[in-house]
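SUBJECT: A protein chain and its fold
Encoding: whole-number codes for local backbone shapes
Chain under study, with its fold:
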Amino acid sequence: MTSAAAQQPTQQTNVWQYKCFVEWCKSVLFAEVLEASGARVLLLGGAHGADTGKLQRAHVGHATVVDETASLAATVERWRAKGEPFELVALDAAPHDAAAWRGLVTARASFDAAFTFDALDLVCTDERALSDWLAGVAAALKPNGRLAGLCADSAQLWSRAQKAVMSEQGTAAAPSSTTAVGGVISAELFDLSFALGLETFSSFGTRYVLTLHEGAHVQPAAASDAELYRSLVHFASLIRLARQHGLRFVEATNLLDFYEDHKRAHAVALKQSGMLGPQGKGKIEQADLIGLFTTFVFVKLADGDDADGAQP
């Protein structure tokens, strides 16, 4: 099989390799969370079909994919091209809007796992929106089912921005690759800015834009500037609200640590991903960007479980 790197030799930029690394992280999460073949999966956001092959390799039996029209169509097309390797239900709705998809997911308490790689930091605009979204996920999961995915590491983004601004003001040293000019935090591979500046951090609605230097936003292209913004995920609030809906926090792992934890067990997939350079290692610039993201995992409590008890 030809690797992604071999298929697209002109695209082996640092940003392209970073995106390959994210795809590897998603594959690892599928493999680690879906311990048995034939699992039923709720996928909130289908990444224009890019996750279809990962679901196939994880040997799922059923996937319900919630996504908006263009991305959903690409998912269905890829699923058919692969010979329809699992049962698929495609629901046309915004994955971050629980009101849009919750009534469509009629198979209650039937999913072994729910995944989202692109929705959580669109949900955290306010407490009600996040609570409703978590309620929808919890209702879909079986007892002991998992909610897992990726999102921005809010502590890292906020800390990086604060240090860069303090360096600009001459009150502290910033990471050597980071500068702050006119409220925009710039590093080798990205720019970071906040809608309301860096004076106030709020548990909900701290909106930011992370833009890659190749000109592509981390999030899909939007119709207006307002739609480019995402909200930092305040993990203490996320964990508190998840507990209210019967979801116990298991772990969150920064992607730099996630790489160290899984690079040996999933070395073949990592090599095939196209992320590694000629020496078999990532680059410093990629690490700078990779460290801005984290995984997260929650588990739905079974009847009688204690939300603050031992993890399963």
Q: What stands out?
A: The CA atoms of residues 109 and 140 lie 4 Å apart. The chain has 13 helices and twelve strands. The chain has two domains: 4-153+232-300, 155-228. Residues 1-10, 215-226 have pLDDT under 50 and may be disordered.
